[in-house]
Design brief:
By secondary structure, the chain is mainly β. The protein is built from no helices and 18 strands. Helix content is about 0%, strand content about 50%. Strands 4-5-6-7 form a four-stranded antiparallel β-sheet, with no helix packed on it. A four-stranded antiparallel β-sheet has the order 8-9-10-11, with no helix packed on it. Strands 12-13-14-15 form a four-stranded antiparallel β-sheet, with no helix packed on it. A hairpin with a 3-residue loop joins strand 1 and strand 2 (about 15-20).
Length: about 180
């Protein structure tokens, strides 16, 4: 949701928009790749997916433009976090962009599939397969945090100073990042 409409992505390069969540409009895109994630950012919308595809729209999803990602790895999620877009995916791929057009890779130090990202208290976090959790103070240099599981982690969120990751077989891991006041 970008504040005015819902935006969905799916296979075959499909993007749908709806102001009500009931009636949906198909938006043309320049790709047939599976699109995994869409994020709203100050410059518009960004979508990511199969074969490293990145699309952006500066007019509320009416028109989409392909951007150069520099990778052929699947990108599973894109989010606007602390004034930058962060896209994560296959083979430890982490890409960042300030404007949606120019993307820079970061060395994650892992080959694990990365699935989710968030930001809290001056640090970016990424979660992925085999219990992977990474952190970075600059979204460029990443450090691996040991976890109590080898299960794949698919969701990551921040709540009241805690990093919460969730994954396969019901695994939930919480870590206090910001001390209680």
């Amino acid at each position: 949701f970008d504040g005015g409409q819902f935006i969905l992505s799916r296979g075959n390069g499909t993007i749908l928009t709806s102001s009500t969540g009931t009636n949906w409009t198909l938006r043309p895109t320049p790709t047939t790749s599976f699109l995994m994630s869409v994020a709203h950012y100050p410059g518009g919308l960004a979508a990511v997916g199969e074969r490293g595809v990145i699309l952006t729209s500066t007019n509320a999803g009416l028109d989409w433009t392909a951007q150069v990602s520099g990778t052929t790895n699947w990108l599973t999620q894109v989010r606007w976090l602390n004034a930058r877009l962060v896209a994560v995916g296959q083979n430890g791929t982490i890409l960042t962009s300030m404007d949606g057009r120019n993307w820079s890779p970061s060395a994650s130090g892992t080959a694990a599939w990365l699935n989710a990202s968030d930001y809290i208290a001056g640090e970016w976090f990424v979660a992925g397969n085999q219990g992977t959790v990474l952190g970075s103070a600059n979204a460029t240099n990443w450090t691996s945090f040991g976890t109590l599981t080898r299960k794949s982690l698919y969701g990551l969120s921040i709540h009241e100073g805690q990093l919460v990751t969730v994954g396969s077989e019901g695994v939930v891991i919480r870590s206090q990042l910001v001390p209680d006041a």
